[in-house]
Records
---
Amino acid sequence: MSGQQFRRNIIVTGGAGFIGSHLVRLLVKKYPEYRIINVDALTYAGNLANLKDIENCDNYVFRKADVTDFEAMRRIMEDFHVDAIIHLAAESHVDRSIKDPFIFAKTNVLGTLTLLQASKEYWESLPEKFDGKLYYQVSTDEVYGALELTRPDGEAPYGDEFFTEQTRYAPHSPYSASKASADHFVRAFHDTYGLPVIISNCSNNYGPYQFPEKLIPLFINNIRHGKPLPVYGKGENVRDWLYVEDHARAIDLIFHRGTPGETYNIGGFNEWKNIDIVRLVIRTVDRMLGRKEGESERLITFVTDRAGHDLRYAIDSSKLHDELGWEPSLQFEEGIEKTVRWYLDNQEWLDNVTSGEYENYYARFYGDSDTH
Ligand code: NAD
Ligand code: TYD
């Protein structure tokens, strides 16, 4: 299979997932001269329907494969003359990692190591070796651990401390521990073998095509169906939210203009307490469904807190802004408006992904709620 007619041949792993599908769409449309090879195992979180609009593009290829399968990864790299990898495939939900940490170690740690080793071996076998090659690791701010909430009742920001690229890794959940471990392997391959790598650590994403086990899509769906909204603890945890297309734009920019060996934080300086987001989403859904605004507040159900629940995440993304000129394009309220509209207009997508198996998992997990 020749890749000569394409200027670059880029693997995106996890391209059928939430962020991956936005990134694949952006790259396929913006760079017809690149071939984008979407490598995804299609777990419960992967859905090719996320890419219906671009699946027939000449510069798009899909390969169903597991990133922990070394032979498969090597073969795809050789078949498509791959010169860059953007690695997103992962188990990504903290609550699942608390229930079943092993798959997180396998997919997130071994999967990353497999891609690193396969790309190193493949690129070393070429005459130009690592020249013009790039391994890009998509990571999370959760690797940095948690920040204090020093102004719990004030306006955002909720404290003076932020995660910078210099913050020491201190993960708490099995999910963040697996992502941190993967990032360490990425750095080790850079420092030990000279593999050209870049890591970016992004804050919480939201937007269309996010699997409805994460806060925002889960709650939109539950409000629509009049189901309880399980708020962990008192809803006081703070997250820093970014619209998914802004994350995809940042990855595109860093991929092209970032410096190999460097790390970039991505975030919108947009901190919100969970309970405030819940109220905003309730107001938005109620209004769009023609209900009395705030009517669905009765669905708020405070449940037992998540074990080891990180209090606050807040990203300092000034390096990305100052060095590469990136900034988020959407205000949060605008992004929530777009997101709620999308979920309400795409009920079929939601029905398809909320299979019986997922519903059962969900029921088991939230069995201990205490309704207020
Ligand atoms: P997601 O769960 O929606 O999608 C993950 C994708 O990876 C799915 O398509 C799934 O099929 C695929 N996958 C899982 N295991 C695989 C395997 N063994 N082999 C091949 N494919 C496999 O995740 P997401 O929210 O889109 O996150 C993507 C990446 O971005 C992850 O690495 C995550 O850690 C990171 N990240 C996510 C957020 C966020 O808020 N969602 C924030 C920062 C960073
Ligand atoms: P989530 O979307 O799972 O992202 P993360 O854990 O990676 O930050 O959760 C966002 C926040 O919302 C987090 O503080 C946990 C909280 N949360 C709830 O209160 N109830 C829920 O049902 C879910 C899924 C999350």
---
Amino acid sequence: MTGLAAQTLDDLTALFAEWGEKRFRAAQVFTAVQQKAIVDPLAITTLPMALRERLLEHFGPPATKVVEVEKSDDGTTKYLFELHDGKRVESVLIPEDGRNTVCVSSQVGCPIRCVFCASGVKGLIRNLDTAEIVEQLLRVTRDLGQRPSNVVMMGMGEPLLNFGPVTDAIRLWIDEKGLHFSPRRITVSTAGTVAKIKQLGETNLRVQLAISLHAATDETRAALVPGSPDGRVQQLVDAAAWYTRRTGRESTLEYVLIQGENDRLVHADALVDAIDGRPIHVNLIPLNPVRHRPDLKPPSGMASVAFADRLRGQGVSCTLRTQRGEDINAACGQLALERSLAEAP
Ligand code: SAH
């Protein structure tokens, strides 16, 4: 059975009717959990103790436990969560220019195995359930003392390969009686597949989409993103353009720049060709070095700027990102791995 944090107001209303509880209690519980971010039923002090205990008995304890909070010098904060089976995932809070972005995980491990990303080193361990996804954001919200401004599904895992729980979690976050997030402020990041991008576009969620492309040719993409179920560059770029037409939301292509692999100007030109004048934004991310692949290096600052200029010079809008939270291993692609490597026999 899935936890209290996964329940919609309708779920709770039906349950409380069955229990013979007053109807207003359902909204009271929903708001306490989803808006006030109180994930422990015993802590919902507006309820009679007997009802709190019944909720605990029915749904069990919260799906996540915060086992460590680490704050970086630049304000980036990493939350390590333990799940009921002892597995661990992380969220990261990134304060920047008056915004607070929370990066949330969707799976334990990841099946995509991007060569530069720590999350996929051990493959997929398991999907997170809805409560485990929802609670990450609620717990960070509680700690922050206010609703964060943005959520990105860019933690561990491939969100579109855990489609049901991820979209259910998003529905709870945008609920007007919950945190009431605007879907514009929620980004789903995916390494594929075209079919799942279409499925997301067909929902009424209208969240922002980021596609982790990382390559401008099929050959380079196969080398860098070996586990991608849909490897073809042109298909993915077409899917990004389709998503924008369908939802009215801007799509972004994520492109991790790796020295000697995908950072040359011919690669920039191939990317321009693939985009072919369509309104797609490119996010360039100089590689954040990872321990399991010491041979992979970021380009020099100058080479990164030259790549960005080459795109812009041909009319492609792009941003060159800077890394944050490096001192606490909260930078992209490092989540939870450092620890599991340290624990490995
Ligand atoms: N599976 C999804 C969600 C994970 S987020 C996806 O692939 O989109 C993946 C993002 O993390 C990548 O697009 C990249 O922006 C970032 N990333 C992962 N490892 C990185 C590294 N070593 N250096 C820089 N960025 C990295």
